[in-house]
Design goal:
heterodimer; A: Rossmann fold; 2 domains; six-stranded mixed β-sheet; four-stranded antiparallel β-sheet; 36% helix; 24% strand; B: MetI-like fold; 12 helices; flat; peptide transport (chain B); membrane (chain B)
Chain lengths: 263, 300
């Protein structure tokens, strides 16, 4: 693949002395939506954290938009790549208004016209302006996740890392957030790397998927494999069978494909 | 729209309105707690007394009148007079200024110091944590009053040195709390999100970590006020705090000790003042804890 948006090679990640991810490598094309699938503890979120700079103890190569990645977080990188966390109840500061949360990235990077940009972004993620000066505890889970997505988009990154962005939400809200993410990707030409253990979400959102088990990638498959079950690896076949085969039978997946994003 | 509706508006239009609304919710919650109100009234009384001392006190706190020595409480001298014929009520009133000065200065010096040391230690962890907490542990392992005594002995007796000594002994407890508090959310996603958008460590500590530590710190400092007053009184009692003729409550008790059996009021009246003010701060601290508990997130 030429000029991949995200490229990982021989990536090993450790927490202290324990190696949790071994020998992971894949490329994500610009504009592509790529899923990392696997059961809990398979190391999918750790891969995301290493790319974001939050799990600095790794060896191998990570590059984003052609630039090799350092081991920590840095300011320049933050404009190209942002992350949305799993739990919207834990990802917003309890004492800061939505306005403060959204203008902070702009303040850090010395970007002007903050007020207009916050208003604009609230509109883009489908939040009414009256939420602007509320505190997080005055918002529902889905609304919080919209704020978290808005915060990640404030610096206009091209690459978004999504760490199970809907798993903490209930089914109807999941569909709204997935539709929002799909629309944002289309409108802003974003590249998604998404961690999930929900195969219907993959079939709704993603073009390709990598299946992880015990810290290794066992298979990289196109999304079409989800319709006909043409997986090569036995573990992947088990995972597919356990999720009930045809993803459209799943209520979350069905809701996601039918309901309209209200925004 | 009434001011109350404006304050309680679900969708504030500006940041100021959001913050004022939050403050309003907290203060109404505080005022619903009778003990907290009692504490608040006592502390306000202390403030008013200190502010208007020259108008409240009927006599000078230092003016002696040897013909009126050791008079019992009466209509003329509400709390009696001491061994030099000074009106004890006037001295207690003026003493509130000294007490307030001690309490305020100790809080202003030790709370921010402890807060920053604790937050830095908790946020960075590793060797920074080990060094800072090692120092804190050394200070914590020494008894407060003894350490304060040692400092005053080294610096010389006096009200300023007593304040410095108490401040030096008070900060380690705050550092401990701030560190424990910081540890609970240093790896939380909202802190990681700030790192991801490029926020510096200093920004994270001052803008994101400290605001979350301050509420428990305010509660703890308010509750500690009683202890600070008692320590100051203890230093005064031992003759290492405020020096005569300053009307410091602890020193006044110390002077009254000689006559405690025959002229009980000399030592008892400033003692009442100490008890009342300590109690006021304790009640207020308890009420504040109920209101500022982070889990309540600023009321309903």
């Amino acid at each position: 693949m030429r000029n991949p948006a995200i490229s990982l090679k021989d990536l090993d990640i450790s927490y202290g002395d324990t190696k949790v991810v071994r020998d992971v490598g894949f490329d994500v094309a610009p504009g592509e939506s790529f899923a990392l699938v696997g059961e809990s503890g398979s190391g999918k979120s750790t891969v995301l954290k290493a790319i974001a700079g939050l799990a600095p103890d790794w060896t191998g190569e990570i590059s984003v938009l052609g630039k090799p990645r350092g081991h920590g977080t840095d300011r320049a990188f933050s404009k190209t790549c942002q992350m949305v966390f799993q739990d919207p109840y834990a990802s917003l500061h309890p004492r800061k208004t939505i306005d403060t949360v959204l203008s902070e990235p702009l303040a850090i990077h010395g970007i002007g016209r903050r007020s207009e940009k916050v208003v604009e972004m609230l509109g883009a993620v489908g939040l009414d302006q009256r939420f602007r000066f509320r505190f997080p505890h005055q918002l529902s889970g889905g609304q919080r996740q919209r704020v978290a997505i808005a915060r990640a988009l404030m610096l206009e990154p091209k690459v978004m890392l999504l760490d199970e962005p809907t798993s903490a939400l209930d089914v109807s809200v999941q569909a709204e957030i997935l539709n929002l993410l799909k629309r944002l990707r289309r409108e802003q030409g974003l590249t998604y790397l998404m961690v999930t253990h929900n195969l219907p979400v993959v079939s709704f959102m993603c073009d390709r998927m990598a299946v992880m088990n015990k810290g290794r990638i066992v298979e990289i498959a196109p999304k079409t494999a989800l319709y006909d079950g043409s997986f090569a690896d036995p573990y992947t076949r088990d995972l597919y069978a356990a999720s009930g085969g045809n993803p459209d039978a799943d209520p979350a997946g069905a809701a996601a494909s039918e309901s309209k994003d209200p925004a | 729209m009434s001011t109350r509706d404006w304050l309680l508006d679900d969708s504030p239009a500006t940041l100021t309105q959001a913050n004022l609304g939050r403050a309003w919710r907290m203060s109404t919650a505080l005022l619903r707690n009778p003990l907290a109100v009692a504490g608040l009234l006592i502390v306000l009384l202390l403030l008013a007394t200190a502010l208007f001392a020259p108008w409240i006190a009927p006599e000078s706190p230092v003016g002696q009148n040897l013909q009126a020595r050791l008079l019992p409480p009466s209509a003329e001298h509400w709390m009696g007079t001491d061994e030099l014929g000074r009106d004890i009520f006037s001295r207690v009133v003026y003493g509130s200024r000294i007490t307030l000065l001690i309490v305020a200065l100790v809080a202003v010096i030790s709370a921010p110091l402890g807060l920053i040391i604790g937050a830095v230690a908790g946020y960075f962890g590793g060797w920074v944590d080990r060094i800072l907490m090692g120092v804190t542990d050394i200070f914590l392992s020494l008894p407060k009053l003894i350490l304060a005594l040692a400092f005053v002995a080294a610096l010389g007796p006096g009200i300023e040195n007593a304040i410095i000594a108490i401040a030096i002994t008070a900060w380690p407890a705050y550092a401990r709390i701030a560190r424990a508090e910081t540890l609970t959310f240093r790896n939380s996603e909202y802190i990681q999100a700030v790192r991801l958008v490029g926020g510096s460590h200093a920004r994270i500590i001052f803008r994101h970590v400290l605001p979350l530590c301050t509420s428990s710190m305010i509660v703890r400092v308010t509750l500690d006020m009683a202890g600070i007053i008692l320590t100051a009184a203890g230093l005064g009692f031992l003759g290492l705090g405020a020096q005569p003729p300053l009307p410091e409550w602890g020193a006044m008790i110390s002077r009254g000790r000689t006559f405690i059996l025959d002229q009980w009021w000399v030592a008892t009246m400033p003692g009442f003042a100490i008890i009342l003010v300590s109690l006021g701060f304790c009640f207020l601290g308890d009420g504040l804890r109920d209101v500022l508990d982070p889990k309540q997130g600023g009321g309903k």
